[in-house]
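Per reviewer request, we include the raw input and output of the structure prediction for the construct analysed in the revised manuscript.
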Amino acid sequence: MANAEQPLAGRTALVTGSSKGIGAATAKALAAAGAHVILTGRDVSALERVEDAIHESGGQSTIAPVDLTEQDGIARLASAVAARWDQLDILVIGAAYLPTLTPVTQIDSKQFGQAITINVLATQALIAAFDPLLKRAEAGRVIGLTSSVGETPRAYWSAYASTKAAFDNLLESYAQEVGKISKVRVAIVDPGATRTAMRAKAYPGEDPATVKPPEAVAERILALATDGYETGHRERIERSG
């Protein structure tokens, strides 16, 4: 049963992109709060390191490697989860792909296709595949990680930003569709400037120490996984401290 120290005891969470960065920090935070966390990603070795850290801290997790670009990969993941658990309490959609920053006229079609597949198509597939399990939960939560460029276009960011705009639309539409017919609640979180590999790729000259660590974002995601809020909630996490 849940308690003050472990408010997510007895609940199951799935975090995409949990091999590093915000996803890994979120997985650890949810596990520390008592949830059994399903770790997904392509890098098995990195997932194992996250799982080791969770287990060493007394938490529970299961590794479920998946390539979001692989056809039927998400369907197989959902089938495996449904075979073991009757419900899914928390779905954190954290995996994303950042194409090279270029003018619209020079977007690499292969990279753009990769971004569309991971950031948009996989998001819809995850929602569709886990919707039944989320609706069986007492208080299902879907938390998606977005970017401010999805709302506010920025030069050279269009290949990524356009996929995040679509990502936001999918989540906001789903929030409206399930808000009155289920207990599923949806939140969209813009992490803001955070110390991740993706951030380093976008801002190669930036001092990592000048931006907040992934744990600061994970702390807020944990709060959203446990607190009540209106579905379709959206927020940006500013620098902590």
